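Chapter summary example.
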Amino acid sequence: MNKKKSRQKRDRSEKLFEKAKTYFPGGVNSPVRAFRSVGGTPLFIEQGKGAYIWDADGNKFIDFCCSWGPLILGHANPKVVKAIKTAVEKGSSFGAPTELENKLAELILSNNKYIEKIRFVSSGTEAVMSAIRLARGYTKRNKILKFEGCYHGHSDSLLVKAGSGLVTFGNTSSAGVPEAFVNETIVCPLNNKEAVKEAFSKFKNEIACIIIEPIPANNGLLLQDKSYLQFLRDICTENKTLLLFDEVISGFRIGFTGAAGFYNIKPDIITYGKIIGGGLPVGAYGASAEIMSHISPEGAVYQAGTLSGNPVAMAAGIAQLTECLKKGFYEKLEKKTNAFVTSIRNQVSGIKIFSIGSIFWIAFTDKEKIQRAEEIDGDSMKHFRKIYHELLEQGVYLGPSGYEVGFVSEAHTEADLKKAGEIIVKNIRKI
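The structure predicted for these 431 residues follows.
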């Protein structure tokens, strides 16, 4: 626990957290917010604008969390805010179809050759859960294969971590997950072709899908080689198994067509997250028209949601993704991110900054590549804990865990990035 007294005023955040602990488990509504990884009291955020956030005590920060990625335009983008206001003035929810669903679907599908039909849901977890059910219903197989180091939300089938051995049914990573669920989930290490081959040898004709973050960004940034992803595509095709890309983070962040477009590999199903709703609660999954025809009411795979296709979220998504389609949008964002991380790399030693598109991860390592979860030195997180609070003191906000990635938005200016880079370099040099 970090006991060092903050130089910033934190009274209101501290009082709010004490009160929150009487309402919510651990005082939060999502675990990482509790600051357990870095120690200290979590900041309660009051507002955000552009590249900045302000906490309840009025402290200002350059924000690289960006609500864990979806705020690619920055906070309170005027066009997104206007779209939200216009939509909510007409009603916030109907539990019935609206034209806005059609418009967002058309915007996505007409610019994404990797899917033909889409279904909107309310979160990334719901999207992945529904996609897994679709894969099982379509293939009439029960087992799924996932990878250690990839996170796919908190549904029971996917809260499984690796057990012992190269290929394993794993162990539950949460209380309340029945052993029967675990026994339908095969866990393999990332970037290990032999493990995947062994899994198919052991469970031939039983695996409904391989699910992977093609750009794993929930446990560090574990960048995979294209050849490995192509191997997964090929072995799935050979075994009549579906390949499911979980692009809740990478979708519309790396490019409009996400990792599928970046690597030019066509998965069978893709899941997306809150970036398609301008930061509002939304998710989606998509596939070919043939696979999606198995979803109710057209097919026998049931999935429903009162707030699916919520008009306010759809309006925000239309506004945000329209901006993302501007000529050169992703190229400018990547160029800005590259300049930011390169500047830091050139000034310090003892760290590596892995990046792709507008995503980056600061790792306290001398390794040139980290592609598997077990390659991350857990002891290195003590360095992140040391600098995290110093960065806060000096106005830089990262996600409160050394395993989390950072995000650059369109709203980050060169001056913002230069200032943040100087602060990060200064504090890395200290340790």
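To summarize the output: The domain at 78-324 is CATH 3.40.640.10 (Aspartate Aminotransferase; domain 2).
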